[in-house]
Amino acid sequence: MKIKDLVCSSGLTGFYFDDQKAIKSGAKNDGFTYIGEPATDGFKSIRQSGESISVMLVLEDGQVAFGDCAAVQYSGAGGRDPLFLASDFIPIIEKEIKPLLVGKEISTFKEMAKLIDDLPLHTAIRYGVTQSILDAVAKSNKKTMAQVICNEYGTTLSNVAIPTFSQSGDDRYNNVDKMIIKRSDVMPHALINHVETKLGLNGELLEEYVTWLSNRVIEIRTDESYNPIFHIDVYGTMGMAFNNDIEKIVDLLGRLEQCAKPFALRIEGPVDAGNRTDTMIALRDIRKLSEEKNINVEIVADEWCNTYDDVVYFTDNKAGHMAQIKTPDLGGINNTIEAVLYCQKNNMGAYIGGTCNETERSAQVCAHIAMATNPVQTLAKPGMGVDEGLMLMRNEMNRIVALKNL
User: What mean pLDDT is reported for the chain?
Assistant: First the structure.
């Protein structure tokens, strides 16, 4: 079956683009926006509307396969590609991608994804176009996208939904209640992105929050079989608070472990050292010292662990216990698949993450990737409202299970 046409449409994402550099530098909230001047190239304000591009492939039998190009909330930060605006990039897709795909016979996902992912284009473009290619291969073969991945990569489709990680945004109290009621597997992310107001100069505010979190689950869960894993993203603020002193950071991890009991705890991004090598070294040393002190807190690599090569680099150096595979940052979704498989082969936890700033379509495609590759967890996305992202991911995964044997 051939691709007859490629059509683009601009769209909204499930959240916003935020200038992380300005926020870390102390930008103040004003309602749902921020006061101050942006500090990252391309931003016109510190918070602005998230944008996406749907790439629709019209097949010769009339079916339409599609995927969504989207970029992370903190675009332009931590070594990532710049701000992704639809008006800037639709012309590039029409010029660079359309001539390659229109009239092309649909072959395998691997072959066609490599054709796109090898192009020197924004990660968001490669992300969305390879989603549409996976959908086209699935439609032409009358299979689900998850089944195509299993067939091409030799994996086994999961019999159950993959554990899903909900994120709260700044509403880290009310949204926790939503997560408990809906039995989110992993929670709450919590958006700890400022030292003085969220972490505390010695970590005391985070200790108070984790204690509250543990008590709240015990207080309102309906039965003791519900034991979520706590996963908190601290955006490098531990390194900022303690001047990257590994001993002090690990001591705080030990205190947080006690605050979280009886629940397990993961801390994402304790240090952002400003570059890949130094961030890797910090996470490697934090993991090593934590294990020496028998502190059972899992460290999750995030900042500067953006591409497939970055995931390999952090994994090979044991820089943390888990890598967040930030799906838009890896470009083609073939890289997400291969990153999960690499982590699994090398004793690194694989977390199919991404961003609140994606779309319903990219979330659905990621659900298929998760079901086909069996990572430790996957992100509930898009948005920060809990209900929407959890619904999208869990429902799509349950559909995949129900259709598994057809």
Answer: 96
Closest-CA residue to 338 (of 162, 163, 149, 156):
149
Q: What does the pLDDT read at residue 232?
A: 98
Structure confidence at residue 189 (pLDDT):
97
Active site residue 326: yes
As a whole number of angstroms, the distance between CA 314 and CA 309 comes to: 9
CB 295, CB 90: distance < 8 Å? no
Question: 87 near 10, Cβ under 8 Å?
Answer: yes
pTM above 0.85, yes or no: yes
Distance between CA atoms of residues 382 and 376, nearest Å: 19
Cα–Cα distance list, 217 to 13, 150, 161 (Å): 31, 36, 22
CB atoms within 10 A of CB 37: 11
Peptide bond into 188 cis (omega under 30): yes
Q: In whole angstroms, give the CA distance from residue 336 to residue 40.
A: 27
C-beta of residue 404 within 8 angstroms of C-beta of residue 157 = yes
367/383 Cα distance (integer angstroms): 16
Share of residues in the chain with pLDDT > 90 (%): 94
Q: What tens digit of pLDDT does each residue of 353-400 get?
A: 999 999 999 999 999 999 999 999 999 999 999 999 999 999 999 999
Of 21, 24, 326, 381, which one is the catalytic site residue? 326
pLDDT in tens, 383-396: 999 999 999 999 99
- H helix runs in 122-188, sequence order: 123-141, 145-153, 174-181
Contact criterion met (CB below 8 Å) for 299 and 287: yes
Cα-Cα-Cα-Cα torsion 288, 275, 333, 41, nearest 10 degrees, comes to: 150
User: What span, in angstroms and rounded, lies between the C-alpha atoms of 123 and 126?
Assistant: 5
Checking if the pLDDT of 92 tops 90, the result is yes
